[in-house]
Amino acid sequence: MLHRVRARDGIKGASRETRAIAFKDVATIREKAIHPGDSVVAIGYPFHGLLTSDFTVTTGVVSSLSGILNDTRFLQISAAV
After folding, report:
1. Which residues, including other chains, have CB under 8 Å from residue 73's CB and lie 6 or more apart?
2. SS3 for 22?
3. Cα(76)–Cα(73) distance, rounded to whole angstroms?
């Protein structure tokens, strides 16, 4: 599957489109299957600028391999997001 990669130039909302490349060429997320109980890390910017300008990190575990209505496109984690 090919994905479009966008490069940002530092100006809010301004980006330029680059070539289409395979996701596996951009990042490797995980090489083996995910199981309940596996560790997870959530990194983000909650209320960026209001609470903090730095990112926050929370940890947890994979609680379930399916989401609402047993939808296996999603999983459930215990990390506060």
Report:
1. 67
2. strand
3. 11
- Look at residue 5 in the predicted model and tell me its pLDDT: 54
Handedness of CA 69, 74, 76, 81 (dihedral sign): negative
For 75, counting Cβ atoms within 10 Å of its Cβ (0-12 exposed, 13-18 middle, 19+ buried), the class is middle
Q: What is the pLDDT of residue 50?
A: 77
pLDDT number for residue 77 = 93
Mean pLDDT by groups of 10 residues along the chain of 81 residues: 54 54 63 90 79 83 92 90 76
**Total count of domains within the chain:** 1
**Angstrom distance (rounded) from CA 63 to CA 16:** 38
Q: Which structural domain, as residue segments, surrounds residue 20? A: 2-77
Cα(11)–Cα(19) distance, rounded to whole angstroms? 21
